[in-house]
Amino acid sequence: VTRQKLLPEDVGTDDCLTSYTYIYSPDLLKDQVAFITGGGSGIGLRIAEIFMRHGCDTVIASRNLDKLNEAAKKLSAVSGRRCLPLCIDVRQPDSIMAAVDETLKEFGRVDILVNNAAGNFLCPATALSFNAFKTVLDIDTLGTFNTSKVVYEKWFKDHGGSVVNISATLGYRGQALQVHAGSAKAANDAMTKHLAVEWGPSGVRVNAVAPGPISGTEGYRRLGGPRGEAAGAFQSIPLQRAGNKTEMAHCALFLASRASSYTTGAILVADGGAWLTSANDFSMLLGIASSKSAKL
Ligand SMILES: CC/C=C\C/C=C\C/C=C\C/C=C\C/C=C\C/C=C\C=C\C(=O)SCCNC(=O)CCNC(=O)[C@H](O)C(C)(C)COP(=O)(O)OP(=O)(O)OC[C@H]1O[C@@H](n2cnc3c(N)ncnc32)[C@H](O)[C@@H]1OP(=O)(O)O
Ligand SMILES: NC(=O)C1=CN([C@@H]2O[C@H](COP(=O)(O)OP(=O)(O)OC[C@H]3O[C@@H](n4cnc5c(N)ncnc54)[C@H](OP(=O)(O)O)[C@@H]3O)[C@@H](O)[C@H]2O)C=CC1
To answer: Which residues, by range, are in coiled-coil regions (predicted)?
Structure first.
């Protein structure tokens, strides 16, 4: 008897999948438009690809326009849908307003907002500067609020829509070296619920996906994922492995689409059960608990 491996395909380069098997209808997002922050790399890029394969046009928006231009070409080539790359810094409301105006000019609508952009690094609280803590809060939490508010006021308020925030389970039990990111994501989980309540009557759903360690991304590398994997750290996760980007994109697709039409204010935990059981302490894992270095 072969034990079933709960490992769905994630076959491809770091950029786009080379093969894909549908688990939802290919028309699930037909002719909708999604605005995805941080859509030029990692989990955001895979979300853009999977949404486009389901009939959606996308805007991918972040700081590095060269990276976005290259990603947009690849995304359009694999999906046959339109992808508009736009330069924003989620800390700068004016840049978001200009990008949403451009989106409405190009596509005439926006149906889905994915707040995926974030910044993170490992750093002990004592070594973390005041500005470093503020920077992560500014990107992760204020950035999520800024983008949600602009998209709501310019379109969702009158037409409805779906917001998907990308959170993390890292703060659920507390973790060394992560007070900045854990605090930011906890605030985002609260924001998800508050905005779900306030915007529900306008036909706007607000939900979140909370990943655990997800391989093949900058975040995974920065947080010591490959070292953790080599040290057998993921054996304490019930599903005994890191997740992959396609799995996160499928969660975002569910929450963004009519498949979850009666779901709002929900946080979909997608971490292989990690936070329930794991000794999820990076400092122990990486042997750097007593490090005084600000730049790990
Ligand atoms: C992955 C898991 C691996 C192993 C786990 C094993 C077992 C655990 C089992 C279960 C655990 C379950 C769940 C947890 C799993 C996953 C982790 C969860 C979350 C992951 C989140 C992310 O991945 S976020 C995306 C990551 N990508 C990026 O960060 C890219 C974008 N980043 C940036 O742009 C920069 O890094 C930035 C965030 C610093 C912002 O840049 P910028 O605006 O240019 O700011 P700066 O001017 O450069 O800096 C501002 C201040 O910050 C200080 N700083 C910068 N870098 C560092 C650092 N590395 N350390 C300390 N301080 C830093 C800088 O000095 C500035 O402060 P000053 O006081 O000097 O002004
Ligand atoms: N990988 C993992 O293990 C986990 C990831 N997550 C979450 O998943 C999401 C994606 O992370 P991941 O794919 O790993 O990492 P990436 O570094 O690939 O993605 C982060 C993205 O955010 C963009 N970004 C960063 N700062 C800004 C800014 N100020 N304005 C606009 N865009 C910005 C970056 O683009 P650019 O540099 O061009 O601005 C980049 O595309 C994040 O929310 C992260 O917290 C949660 C748990 C675990």
So the answer is: none
